[in-house]
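Help needed: design a sequence for this.
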């Protein structure tokens, strides 16, 4: 990708040179920088004061081994990461991912995205991300506990309620957070809100499991409203069937939408009646808890068509909401989406779309809502959990939900206004990048070269 601004071009080349082979990180930096050209033309001081060079460089990269003993008494070794990317507006905040695909590039891309996502929420949170190439699937509870305790034994020295507050992500749910929180409390001899996504009895927030999905739907509702449309009566394709997809399907159904597609690594199902009863929605959680990772189980239980080994993007629906993982939508998928006349594409998972596919969708008139805005509901409620922990207080589910709803509405409108201010009216991707960037960049300017 070439930029009109030679300083931006040189910066992108430096990122690629300094981070060889890290394709996911290159991809997210390029996607953000493309949106910032008009901002940097108007504000050259961000280059003059070194903000741009600093903002693409993590403040700290922590990489460590994680030895643990399996149920057969064999010592296993995994690799752990914590990328503390940017603390300009608050303590580092971002999830921990346990999955075999985890590497430095993926954690770095997630930390960079998290920086701007957290900025968009309006809450005082910096950006960070972490995890390990450990796969909890197929492991016993005792093995998961021993791994989590070993992982936290090293991580504990680098985090704290005013320094870095991790949360869950793929492969890290309430069980894993509980084991890690217990080990941190044991090591530090203090009870603090150092992790979010905790269980309710020990400082967790109500509606945290649903928050990312609920927030995505609140954003989508506000977006549709701006076009004079509504969720009610529309059909939706949702990829995945984990916590995020479950929260998304639950809220869409509550607001009158019909989710006809959910997918997994084995293919997708098409339910013409919608994943619309409580039994069907709850069964998504049963599928996830089974660790079989098969959406075909839904087809077997409810007697609907299953399309083995296929992605769900070839079906005609009103709105597409990818909720699974990064780069699940490629150029060939984007062409199918456009050919089917899909008007709205709402990214829920982190960076689910390749840059090529994103450009094709936008060039062909699809309204694209970007993940760093849409996905922010989860971290927003994590931020609310931090606030509750600091106050030694807890809000009702209704209070948390109302705060989440307002945050997502504010994110949509701040993105819309930022895009308009910089001559890119209607471009929600650019608007989110610009709005998220400006808050962080202005704080960095105030600090000087640190």
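Sure. Designed sequence:
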């Amino acid at each position: 990708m070439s930029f009109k601004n030679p300083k931006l071009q040189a910066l992108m080349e430096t990122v690629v040179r300094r981070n060889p082979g890290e394709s996911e990180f290159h991809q997210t930096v390029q996607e953000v920088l493309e949106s910032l050209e008009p901002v940097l033309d108007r504000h050259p001081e961000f280059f003059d004061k070194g903000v741009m060079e600093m903002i693409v460089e993590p403040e700290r990269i922590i990489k460590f081994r994680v030895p643990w003993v399996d149920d057969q008494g064999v010592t296993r070794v995994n690799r752990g990461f914590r990328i503390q990317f940017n603390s300009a507006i608050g303590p580092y905040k971002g999830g921990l991912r346990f999955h075999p695909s985890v590497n430095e590039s993926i954690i770095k891309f997630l930390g960079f995205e998290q920086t701007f996502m957290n900025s968009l929420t309006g809450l005082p949170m910096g950006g960070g991300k972490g995890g390990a190439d450990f796969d909890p699937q197929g492991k016993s509870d005792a093995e998961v506990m021993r791994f989590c305790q070993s992982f936290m034994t090293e991580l504990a020295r680098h985090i704290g309620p005013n320094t870095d507050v991790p949360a869950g992500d793929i492969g890290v749910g309430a069980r894993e957070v509980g084991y890690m929180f217990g080990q941190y409390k044991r090591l530090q001899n203090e009870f603090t809100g150092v992790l979010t996504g905790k269980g309710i009895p020990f400082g967790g927030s109500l509606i945290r499991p649903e928050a990312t999905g609920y927030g995505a739907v609140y954003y989508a509702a506000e977006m549709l409203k701006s076009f004079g449309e509504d969720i009610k009566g529309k059909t939706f394709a949702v990829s995945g069937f984990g916590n995020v997809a479950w929260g998304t399907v639950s809220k869409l159904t509550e607001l009158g939408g019909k989710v006809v597609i959910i997918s997994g690594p084995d293919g997708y199902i098409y339910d013409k009646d919608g994943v619309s009863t409580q039994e069907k929605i709850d069964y998504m959680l049963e599928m996830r808890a089974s660790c079989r990772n098969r959406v075909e189980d839904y087809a077997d239980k409810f007697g609907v068509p299953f399309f083995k080994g296929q992605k769900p993007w070839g079906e005609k629906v009103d709105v597409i909401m990818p909720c699974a993982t990064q780069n699940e939508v490629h150029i060939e998928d984007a062409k199918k989406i456009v050919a089917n006349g899909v008007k709205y594409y709402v990214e829920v998972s982190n960076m689910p779309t390749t840059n090529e596919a994103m450009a094709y969708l936008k060039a062909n008139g699809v309204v694209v809502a970007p993940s760093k805005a849409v996905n922010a509901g989860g971290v927003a409620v994590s931020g609310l959990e931090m606030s509750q922990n600091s106050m030694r207080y807890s809000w009702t589910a209704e209070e948390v939900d109302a705060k989440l709803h307002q945050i997502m509405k504010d994110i949509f409108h701040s993105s819309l206004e930022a895009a308009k201010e910089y001559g890119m009216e209607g471009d929600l991707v650019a608007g989110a990048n610009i709005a998220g960037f400006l808050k962080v960049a202005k704080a960095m300017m105030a600090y000087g070269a640190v």
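The mean pLDDT is 96.
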